[in-house]
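Methods — Computational structure assignment.
A single polypeptide chain was analysed. Its primary sequence is given first, followed by the predicted tertiary structure written as structure tokens.
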Amino acid sequence: MRRLPYLTVRIMLLALLLVGGAIAQDTYPSKPVRMIVPYPPGGVGDTTARMLTPKWIEQLGQQIVVENRPGAASNIGVDAVAKAAPDGYTIGFFDSAFVVNPSLYAKLPFDPVADFAPVMVVARGPMVLVVNPNTPANSVNELIAMAKAKPGAMSYASAGSGTAIHLAAELLKTATGTQIVHVPYKGAGPAVLGVVAGEVPMMFGLPGTVRGQISAGKLRALAITGERRFAGMPDVPTFAEAGFRGVDASLILILAAPARTPKPIIDKLYDTLQKTVTTPEVRNRLLEVALVVIGADPQQSAKLLHDERELWARVVKASGARVE
């Protein structure tokens, strides 16, 4: 039998790949898509995922089943996505722990870069610094002055070591050269109650978590992260307005697929989700929980995730936080 020239074989293989990709895009999805959320029901990640799915289902033309897989600071659910078949039928909806944990944990069961294909950085949410109303400080500058006057005497609450609101406070410490003691609680809710009760004078929190207590006069907001003031709390200045430009911590929400998921499938996921998050209904619902749509494409998302990992690596190193 006459052997085909090497170049001819390569051209034939390339043609088959292109045809296969087109078929994958045309037929995907042909069954329900499982979206793993590595947190328990009721949290920001879970609530946002379920907020997106009704409109996204309309765009995708197939059911999206949200599956909560909490544990190990989200690593159990993230690992499940990393090890899933790269066929577009298992995807993950992650938050900032996805970019923090690589620096926080000495060892992870997955590679945070090589094992994932970013689809979209969906949204970003600011964090607000709040204090107990009995705390004398009425501004960030006054609070920092108090902390510098008595190094180590002031403390802050968090939802636990390594959480976004823990590391936001560590970023504040690094940016201001202050010594403030970390008091971890078992979750954001208990931490808020601890500050309300005066057990700890201050903490960072997501607006949706602390806004009710602020409105009731049980907490006082001093500043919020982000480039501009949050529309839902227009009277709260940004850290940049207060003169602290290095305090830019925020919560991000990410959609990712297993590595080696075909590009046509990634594109289909991105395109349909982009159409979802840009609808006024979904955008407004996200704003209600203090989330601003980013909608970054896969390439932009990869860059954003790289930058976030670099930021939190510096913060984790400065804080000395570590989880074995």
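Note: The mean pLDDT is 89.
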